[in-house]
Amino acid sequence: MSLSLSEQGRLAWAVDQAWRGALARLALVWAGLIALFWRDWAAMGHQWWDSSTYNHILMVPAILGWLVTQRLPDLWRLPVAMWRGGLGLMGAALLLWALGALASVAQITQIAAVAMLIAAVPLVLGLRAALGLLFPLAYMGFLVPFGDEAIPLLQTITAKITIALVHISGIPARIDGVFIATPAGLFEVAEACSGVKFLVAMIAFGALAAHVCFVSWGRRAAFMALCVAAPILANGVRAWGTVYVAQYYGAAVAGGVDHIIYGWFFFAAVIAGVIALGWRFFDRAAGAPMLDVGAVMALRLPAMRGISAGACFGALAAMVLAAQGWVMAADRLAAPMPARIALPEVAGWHRVDYAPRHVWEPRAGGADHRLLGRYADARGHEVDVFFALYASQGPGKKAGGFGEGALRPETGWSWQAPGPDVPGAHSDRLLAGGPTERLAQTSYKTGDLVTGSNARLKLANIIDRLLLRRRATMLLILSAEEGGAFRAADSLGAFRASAGPIGDWMDAAAKGL
User: Fold this and answer.
1) How many CB atoms lie within 10 A of CB 85?
2) Alpha-carbon distance 454 to 486, whole Å?
3) CB of 124 within 8 A of CB of 102?
4) Confidence check: pLDDT of 188 > 60
5) Could you give the CA distance from residue 130 to residue 118 in angstroms, rounded to a whole number?
6) Which of 159, 440, 443, 479 could make an S-S bridge to 425, C-beta 3.0–4.6 Å?
7) How far apart are CA 106 and CA 402, in angstroms?
8) Which residue has the higher pLDDT, 158 or 18?
9) Which helix (H) or strand (E) holds 413?
10) Which uninterrupted H or E stretch holds 479?
11) For the range 223-227, what are the long-range contacts, defined as Cβ-Cβ under 8 Å and sequence gap of 24 or more?
12) How do the domains of the chain map onto residue ranges?
């Protein structure tokens, strides 16, 4: 049965009206969510604009707009209606936000803020319309700044690639963690040289190119693997080039060349190389539609139970208020604090003046009490002890936050390599000019938990705040300098043996015993 032109016009008008109303409601929900969670969006925007690692994210909104316009002619053919099941997705995003806020992990709250906008699409437009926008919705994940967590691993990988190439090129060199010593000087694979900025940008580019240029999932996976491997390997080559130039033209020239290559040509060359390698394998036909309406309509989906706009907005408002209210209540929690604390006595050890060869003082921002001192025993072992006590954990007072603990940014100390494993502690080797080496072992305690894992600490803090329990958090850093009468690891082992269970010792410090 065919429709007359007038009937087709009325049907098109009805479809347009349905989509216009749905898009207006979606814009209203998005605006409300961005306003209610503005702190998270502002924090993301600050990173997009001010951090060179995340400058590429400024292009993501434009890419999202382009991806949607590629689907518009076919998207209007999909049915649109509010879907009750979307409230479950929104509830999951709000729960994730609450967990992130309770743990004071900004990246989790930022992921959740983006997830809320994504969940609003099936809620307001319906499940089939959301499936028609599946890739643009997934690509919204690149709005979240990520990658800093991989910096230590990337530093290590880059250093290993560099030393291998340095040896192949005939330059005598030795490696110690992320430091490479050559006749031209000591080179550090610093955080800025880890290649993280190019890796995260390449992953975002690779995901877009894999979707637009390929149809085969196998080819997409291979292309993404190339987009991960290429910047890592290329960064190792770049670091080797800096070392190589320094051998013949000096470190100053090498630094200038590295800056030019790193800032202007490196990423463009890597992208060009990846595209050249993948070009012959592109299998999406030119002009092929980005949305297969027939496939979406053929999917067998659960019953689409609708919901009125008023009921939807009311339920959404209630969930948002519950999440934010719970976090506000948890933010007011604070464990009782003693008037003073003191480093406890340790059998066979005595306190001596704290006189490090290179100034070292850990950071414990927001802590209610801090102590730093040095112990020595009769044999000549020396150990530095830093202890901090927190009434609560939150923004500006996170025992395991970035820049907190043994390695403070911009203090002359650099991360060198992981230290030996120690039960209940996280171990790091640090290096400062001189050079001065230090082994630092970091432990956290809350309740009965004693751990060196920042993740386990955050999980315990989340549970406490979810249950509205008032528990103090403790930070202990035991450290020792290398180059004395004993190895740092031996001095720390001797101190731990004398101090007994480290959790009990931390409790004694918190009580001022």
Assistant:
1) 17
2) 29
3) no
4) yes
5) 9
6) 443
7) 11
8) 158
9) strand 413-418
10) strand 473-481
11) 223/278, 223/281, 226/274, 226/277, 226/278, 227/202, 227/203, 227/274
12) 5-146+307-331, 148-279, 349-510
Distance CA 7, CA 423 (A): 76
Q: How far apart are CA 483 and CA 356, in angstroms?
A: 12
**Peptide bond just before 61 cis, omega within 30 deg:** no
Tell the residue number behind the tokens 């316009």, with chain if given: 69
Q: How far apart are CA 33 and CA 51, in angstroms?
A: 25
**pLDDT confidence bin for 203, thresholds 50/70/90:** very high
- For residue 288, the tally of other CB atoms under 10 A from its CB is 9
Q: Which long-range contacts (C-beta less than 8 Å, at least 24 apart) are formed by 208-212?
A: 208/63, 208/139, 209/275, 209/278, 211/135, 211/139, 212/284, 212/290
Residue with tokens 């202990």: 476
The answer to whether 433 and 412 have CB atoms below 8 angstroms apart is yes
Residue type, 126: G
What token pair was written down for 350? 């005595």
Alpha helices (H) in 105-150, listed in sequence order: 106-125, 127-132, 134-139
The answer to whether 109 touches 101, Cβ cutoff 8 Å, is yes
Structure tokens at 299: 């999917």
Give the single-character DSSP code of 285.
P
Q: Could you give phi then psi for residue 351, rounded to 5 degrees?
A: -80, 140
User: How does pLDDT run across 29-55, given as a tens digit for each residue?
Assistant: 999 999 999 999 999 999 999 988 899
Query: 0.85 cut: is pTM over it?
Result: no
pLDDT of residue 223: 96
289 alpha-carbon distance from chain centroid: 35
Q: How far is CA 443 from the centre of its chain?
A: 21
Region 376-402: mean pLDDT is: 91
Q: Which of 118, 96, 120 is nearest to 108 (CA)?
A: 96
Say if CB 195 and CB 217 are below 8 A apart.
no
- Four-point Cα dihedral 455, 461, 465, 467, nearest 10: 90
Tell me the C-alpha distance between 100 and 393, whole Å. 12
User: ∠24-26-32 over CA atoms, to 5°?
Assistant: 105
